[in-house]
TrEMBL record:
Residues annotated as signal peptide: none
Domain named Aminoacyl-tRNA synthetase class I anticodon-binding: residues: 352-455
Xref: SUPFAM superfamilies: An anticodon-binding domain of class I aminoacyl-tRNA synthetases (SSF48163), Nucleotidylyl transferase (SSF52374)
The UniProt record lists the keyword Iron: no
Gene: gltX
Domain Glutamyl/glutaminyl-tRNA synthetase class Ib catalytic residue range list: 3-316
Name of the protein this chain belongs to: Glutamate--tRNA ligase
UniProt motif ('HIGH' region) ranges: 9-19
UniProt GO cellular component terms: cytoplasm
Chain sites annotated for binding ATP: 253
Source species, domain of life: Bacteria
Length: 457
């Protein structure tokens, strides 16, 4: 059977680095197993879900290097869920409940005071046909609960019922169905909670592995029971730890914290984001690799830690720098060209500056320095000014190459007696306007003799 995974966000906001972790765990798992990746939008909440968010999520995934084999929307499949509801009702596994939230809360408190687990006591199962009619005559509408298989004969005598699975990420897992309330699958206004549509889709779409955040571990107990109630075999499950901000807060699509779009706009490379999103919170070293196939080789689901993992955006910059440092010109060329960096000098320019930038768009600043001169006028002390002037008189004739800087500075050293920082810093300042930057040996041939002379203070 073809390994089939899915990434199933609700399109109610922009995805963040934590969502990207889920998407990438699925994508890499599919890559490693020659599998398929389905993009499924869990948009049963039609009021909060928006097509523009779904489009933005697809855009973000493409940017990260994820290209789904298929895309589907739950809002187009309500008829299929309705059929599953009928099937469950016919089997006596979905029952109508009429309690208001206040009534449920009161019952919960009573159970707690009697030292009983605060789960739903299935009171609605005891309603007679007349009682239900009377409630409906009062204008109450039912919500529908799934009868968990946590009893032998009598649903009011629940007993420990372990649902076990070997989690692709966490290893052996167990959920006791007797510790859970019968989940509501359909609200009183007829809308679906996520639980049932997700299982119905996973069956229909042939999903073989559900990989998602560990906030869903308990749901998995319920969902495995639901797969079985619908006559299907449950797929494999994997639950990865969640990412939090450095202060330990959870990430939310609604707050926009660490959104993929924001990271993209800040000029980061997609693979820096992907590498951190996947490797953080695992026993693997967090390194930057330039290709998804290389990240797949490092990806080992079972190496994931079980506790939440803090995410420090500063680590992204470290990874980004390392990607740029090793990035061949061919890979940067189009984006450099969009920044105005083109022509014969573009490649040697890139090789000169790539080790000195944190984000690729910063190359544009260096391009201006190389093509137009320092951005700010350089204010050298008088003795440095005359030193630089003398040095400029000693510039060797063209052609210039990578050795010209050494030839020139040797001559300057002999003529002036200056050496070390006292020699090169005034030259660096005059040539670039900045106290640090790419090797001057690399920059000099880019400036050319004429460009260099134009920088004489
Ligand atoms: N829509 C659910 C969520 O975003 C999907 C969970 C799942 O993968 O099953 O949490």
């Amino acid at each position: 059977m073809t390994v089939t995974v899915r990434f199933a966000p609700s399109p109610t906001g922009h995805i963040h680095i934590g969502n990207a972790r889920t998407a990438l765990f699925n994508w890499l798992f599919a890559m490693k197993n020659n599998g398929r990746f389905i993009q499924r939008f869990d948009d049963t909440d039609v009021l909060r879900s928006k097509q523009e968010y779904a489009d933005a999520i697809l855009y973000d995934l493409h940017w990260l290097g994820i290209f789904p084999d298929a895309t589907d929307y739950q809002s187009r499949r309500f008829g299929v869920y309705d059929a599953a509801v009928e099937k469950l009702k016919a089997a006596g596994l979905l029952y109508a409940c009429y309690e208001t939230p206040e009534e449920l809360e009161l019952r919960r408190k009573v159970r707690l005071s009697r030292k009983l687990p605060p789960v739903y006591g299935r009171e609605a199962l005891k309603l007679t046909g007349e009682e239900r009619e009377a409630l409906e005559a009062q204008g109450r509408k039912p919500h529908w609960r799934f009868l968990l298989p946590n009893f032998r004969e009598n649903p009011f005598e629940t007993e420990r019922t372990e649902i076990r699975w070997t989690d692709v990420v966490r290893g052996e897992e167990t959920v006791d169905l007797a510790s859970l309330s019968d989940p509501v699958l359909v609200r009183e206004d007829g809308t679906y909670l996520y639980t049932l549509p997700s299982v119905v889709d996973d069956i229909d779409m042939g999903v073989t592995h559900i990989i998602r955040g560990d906030d869903h571990v308990t749901n998995t107990g319920v969902q495995i029971a639901l797969f079985q109630a619908l006559g299907a075999e449950a797929p494999a499950f994997g639950h990865h730890n969640l990412l939090t901000t450095s202060s330990g807060e959870g990430l939310s699509k609604r707050t926009g914290a660490l959104s993929i779009g924001g990271l993209r706009e800040s000029g980061l490379e997609p693979m820096a984001v992907a590498c951190l999103a996947v490797l953080i919170g695992t026993s693997e070293n967090v390194v930057a690799v330039p290709k998804m196939s290389e990240l797949a080789a490092l990806f080992e689901p079972t190496a994931t830690s079980k506790s939440a993992s803090k995410f420090d955006p500063a680590d992204l910059v470290v990874l980004n720098r390392s990607l740029l440092h090793n990035m061949p010109f061919a890979e940067a060329q189009d984006r450099l060209s969009a920044l105005g960096v083109s022509g014969e000098r573009a490649e040697p320019f890139w090789l000169a500056v790539r080790g000195n930038i944190e984000k690729l768009p910063e190359a544009a600043n260096w391009w201006r320095v190389v093509t137009q001169g320092p951005q700010e006028s350089v204010d050298l002390p008088e003795n440095d000014r005359s030193f630089v002037s003398e040095a400029f008189d000693l510039l060797p004739p063209e052609p210039w190459d990578g050795t010209t800087w050494k030839t020139w500075t040797n001559a300057v050293k002999d003529a002036t007696g200056r050496k070390g920082k006292a020699l090169f810093m005034p030259l660096r300042l005059s040539l670039t306007g900045l106290a640090s930057g790419p090797e001057l040996a690399d920059l000099l041939p880019l400036l050319g003799r004429e460009g260099t002379l134009a920088r004489r203070p």
